[in-house]
DNA sequence: AAGCAATATGGAATCGATACCACATTAAGT
DNA sequence: ACTTAATGTGGTATCGATTCCATATTGCTT
């Protein structure tokens, strides 16, 4: 690998001049520039980003911490982030927590050691240690998916979307509406969405039976089991089923189809996420579109704002959503 | 950000000693070590990976070039890669070509400038410029998905799997088997899979009508259109339909259901990819599982081998596959 | 008691870039 | 013709780590 020194020698100039040509700043004569450009091409010179970062304190890299790489949501969000950042000359460095909270902190340190200029966290929990680690951090930081106190956050409108889904059932005449949620460690999905459901039920003076509230773990299988529980082990069978993720909703759908329970005739179904899957199951699943790509893009924009100085306080941004009603209701 | 110098001062030792403690090599007295460890903790010191990389010429990072981030296949492969590399102390740096061939070369340079220790390319084409760029590269390189000449490659068994799918149709009595492929720029998917289909047909002396060979672009919509074409604009209607990706197969399925054409009664259907979708559509789609995670893992292992010196020639590895027959046939 | 290996520590060079300062040379303004 | 500004170029310190070499101390062996 040739270095800037080699290029300088070949072009018959100093390293300083080569640097000037590379970064297009300072005064360089036409001939000198030409000789440098030529030398660079001939030698296949590629500047070392590390040396540059070390000297300038800017790496041009944004770290993105994902709970899991292989989910549709994460993919879409990353796409949005990538698009926006690439357009502004930044690269992204992805890390994966495999859903382990302790790995979030570990990854933040890892990214810090690599001198990333900013960090985006697709958050799944609101761990105290995590908040402290972030507070100690001296670089731009944006969380997506959970509202973290003291941290610029972009969140989906979990409450209102869940509220609307529930009301949409109610407006169709449903009264016995069951709920498939997730554990409360995931605040946005586990707590806020449930609250939206509960409040909508309360607003219409509909009782919520304890046995109608089930919990899964985001998987198809857990949705299947929750539906089974709801349809087999309850005194009052619900006529509508609201799962807080599409995967669980589709798991539930699997159970209903297996038992030949008509959807939406006997039981109506709603999910959240607008996954590819939701459109292609039978019947097509009603769901909520959170516009994940836009979310990623918005998040990236916030990081860029912080990067370019417009620090603009710790913002809280709540995103749009859209109910997609299909044949499952 | 404290540096090694600050830690040294705090602990009352030299930078050298701190480095020794950090890397656990050389002689360090018990007390000195203790003071250093304490200082590190107190100051929240995080070593600069850049300085280290610069000095040692090892970054501990493997670059992964993806055609697109948000596909199920890519996600799974990355998962496999990540798992294997993380276990060996490596991080991955993802880049995205957005399916543009020229971006592959650009990204290789980008990764090189970041001193990655190796590069994995999820290849979609066999561009000559690309091959030259790789040949010039002096770091470990593995391609996944396409067999690139002169490059260690891991490939799916496109030929035999396509052959088997076709024979599976034939063994069920089908003779009029249509094919939905993709353009030949993607050699593995566009050329090899088609050859598997053609050879299987030839082996059983079945004629292949020109009009039975359609092409899509990996999207649902293109699968839908191809099916429409096949069922509306042909003289002889096929009784079986083999799409080289699940997405196109499911697009085709959408058309068939819309026209109330019974699957598999009137038309049988096969895809490739073992996507989540394939299991949850109605009827469940028959497909081919390429074990993407294993593929990623295997690819990572090859990189690791090259990294640890066992250079072992330019290997060519062909992966296993498995036909999953479901109700669509 | 002398010699030598093992242990312990620090100084200084180095990796490859950038940036500041110094110093020419040329052009422009009065 | 002389000052001042613009242009062009190179030397050297610096970023934060590692590594080689030199030196000091200790413990063992004969």
From TrEMBL, chains A, B:
This is LacI family transcriptional regulator. It comes from the Bacteria. PROSITE patterns: HTH_LACI_1, HTH_LACI_2. Gene3D superfamilies: 3.40.50.2300, lambda repressor-like DNA-binding domains. InterPro entries: HTH_LacI, LacI/GalR-like_sensor, Lambda_DNA-bd_dom_sf, Peripla_BP_I. Residues 2-56 form the HTH lacI-type domain. Pfam families: LacI, Peripla_BP_3. One of its GO terms (molecular function) is DNA-binding transcription factor activity. Keywords: DNA-binding, Transcription, Transcription regulation.
């Amino acid at each position: 690998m040739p270095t800037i020194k080699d290029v300088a020698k070949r072009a018959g100039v100093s390293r300083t001049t080569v640097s000037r040509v590379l970064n297009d700043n300072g005064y360089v004569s036409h001939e000198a520039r030409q000789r440098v450009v030529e030398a660079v091409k001939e030698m296949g010179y590629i500047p070392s980003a590390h040396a540059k970062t070390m000297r300038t304190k800017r790496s041009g890299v944004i770290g993105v911490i994902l709970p899991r790489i292989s989910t549709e949501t994460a993919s879409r969000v990353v796409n949005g982030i990538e698009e926006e950042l690439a357009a502004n000359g930044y690269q992204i460095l992805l890390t994966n927590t495999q859903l382990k909270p302790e790995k979030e902190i570990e990854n933040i340190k890892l990214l810090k050691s690599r001198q990333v200029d900013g960090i985006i966290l697709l958050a799944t929990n609101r761990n105290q240690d995590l908040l402290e680690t972030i507070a100690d951090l001296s670089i731009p930081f944006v969380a997506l998916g959970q509202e973290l106190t003291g941290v610029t956050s972009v969140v989906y409108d979990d409450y209102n979307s869940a509220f609307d889904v529930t009301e949409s059932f109610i407006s169709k005449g449903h009264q016995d509406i069951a709920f498939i949620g997730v554990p409360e460690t995931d605040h946005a999905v586990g707590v806020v969405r449930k609250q939206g459901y509960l409040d909508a039920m309360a607003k219409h003076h509909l009782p919520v039976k304890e046995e109608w509230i089930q919990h899964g773990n985001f998987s198809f299988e857990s949705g299947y089991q929750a539906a089974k529980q709801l349809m087999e082990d309850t005194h009052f069978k619900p006529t509508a089923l609201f799962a807080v993720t599409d995967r669980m909703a589709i798991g539930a759908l699997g159970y209903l189809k297996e038992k030949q329970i008509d959807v939406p005739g006997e039981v109506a179904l709603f999910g959240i996420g607008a996954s590819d899957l939701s459109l292609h199951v039978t019947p097509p699943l009603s769901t909520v579109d959170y516009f994940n790509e836009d979310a990623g893009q918005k998040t990236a924009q916030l990081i860029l704002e912080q990067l370019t100085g417009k620090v603009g306080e710790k913002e809280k941004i709540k995103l749009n959503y859209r109910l997609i009603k299909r044949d499952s209701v």
